[in-house]
Automatic annotation (TrEMBL):
Transmembrane segments: 16-35, 47-65, 72-92, 104-125
Species of origin: Paracholeplasma manati
Keywords (A to Z) from UniProt: Membrane, Transmembrane, Transmembrane helix
Lineage: Bacteria, Bacillati, Mycoplasmatota, Mollicutes, Acholeplasmatales
Record-given protein name: Phage holin family protein
Superkingdom of the organism of origin: Bacteria
Amino acid sequence: MRKGIKAFFQGDSYSIGYLMSTIINMLAVATTVGITMQLKVTSFEGFMIYVILFTLLDTMVSLLIKRYYFQFVIQSFGLILALVGLILIFITEQLVPDVYFESVFGIIGFTVFFLVFRLLLIYTYEKTIGQKKGLK
């Protein structure tokens, strides 16, 4: 069993783990945009930059939080990670000019749906990889 930082990434290397996180986030953002209609995307390049930048920020911040402040995550039942996700979605939206939200409630609704859907995608991915490796 892998421990430490490598346990966060689900691949054998950091690049595979980051690539899978980017693909999962891309699917989750695209689905959430289609269902909630809260995030307005004016170009495909803006969408790609948004997903890549969000994944990079999310990976770095999540590693730091899980490494140094994990007891607070446990005490808050993971609400700290949801709040960090909301802040990172907002920051990334401010950095990418081709992506914007219509309202504050749009950001909150988008974030809630996105985080739940991403969690389901990660669970499905891990379950699929576990069955391929013979781990049930």
